[in-house]
Amino acid sequence: MNADTPQALPPTCQLLARQETDYRGWWWVAPPRDPWLEGGQGLAISADLAVRQAWQAAGRPAYSPFDSLPGSAEEAPQGEGQREVQGAVLFWPKSHALGEWWLLWLCATLPEGTPLQLVGENQGGIKRVLKVLAALGLGCRKLDSARRCSLFETRLGRVAIDPDAAWTAFEVEPDAERLLLASHPGVFGHGKLDDGTRLLLETLPAVLPVGDGPGDVLGDVLGDVLDMGCGDGILAAWLARRGAAVTAVDVNAFAVEATRRTLATNGLVGETLESDVYSALAGRTFDAIVSNPPFHQERAIDYGPAAQLILEALAHLKPGGQLLLVANAFLPYPDLLERAFGGFEILADDRRFRVYRAVSR
Predict the structure, then answer these.
(1) 119 pairs with which residues across the strands?
(2) CA–CA separation, 9 vs 358, rounded Å?
């Protein structure tokens, strides 16, 4: 490493940076934000739009797993481009089910025999990959360990499990109305209705404007509504079923795809977009913004996205528009709401979660 090379910051990247592997032509899969990675070689594959945008801002290639990928088996059936992929590094995520999906996806996407390194923090369960790889019939050896992280190596092979099998569906009945939700590992609320979201759904009917005049259908939610951090699409589907013109956004490509599938499965219409908070919504305003915002990034607490959601909400609300969000009761959102709106009200509080409302004046 020369003096101009950016320093690796996360422990996993520090472990990789001391390896003698030539990572030119490698894929970095599900990587964290890190200047060493973003200033190095290879390309990123990430479901996180913010990560991809950081790589692209640095002039580096970055793709979603839903994109057509250079060097994949599908893109180079005659083998010409396959030689471009020298290997892949998978950063094992907090969700083991998501890590297993990435592993299956890599086996289905890259040529058999492609070198694969798997890295992660010990407390995040990286050592579990030994059993996962063994179950898939893939050999494995430990390359290195440091800073409470471990690095393993294997080679990709063909396995009998289709990664699309990770997509599941489950039923919920908010307001006694059945909805079928699409779900994928790593999407918030995977396979169940979150209690905070349930409280928000119970609160919304009393505060959203509904039609009651000529040309309106009684009970229809009026106006344009933004579902910020759409997850599996429960809020977007609930709103769309009531007639709202819904735009659903999330920074996570799996969440955007889950919401798209949820709307389609239930015969509903809505716009779905990848967006890092408001990044894809320049100049657009809404009658209401509804959200159950995240406050974790892997295992670390991160108020950044929720703070941006609140502090920039006025620029995306029409006059009289309202921000409606649910959050754990201990989170410091009242100060942010007061700073952004000059006031707010608490619509519901079950001691675990609170539903907040702030109105654009």
Answers:
(1) 91, 151
(2) 38
Tell me if residue 41 falls in helix, strand or coil: coil
- pTM to 2 decimal places: 0.91
Question: How large is the C-alpha radius of gyration of the chain?
Answer: 22
| Biggest CA pair distance of the chain | 72
**What torsion, rounded to 10 degrees, do the Cα atoms 279, 258, 241, 350 define?**
-80
Q: Vertex 49, ends 46 and 51: CA angle to 5°?
A: 65
Number of H helices, E strands in the chain: 10, 18
Q: Given the structure tokens 């190596």, which residue do they identify?
A: 153
Q: pLDDT tens, 322-352?
A: 999 999 988 889 999 999 999 999 999 999 9
Q: What angle do CA 171, 293, 252 make, to 5 degrees?
A: 75
Angle between helices 304-311 and 333-341 (to 10 degrees): 20
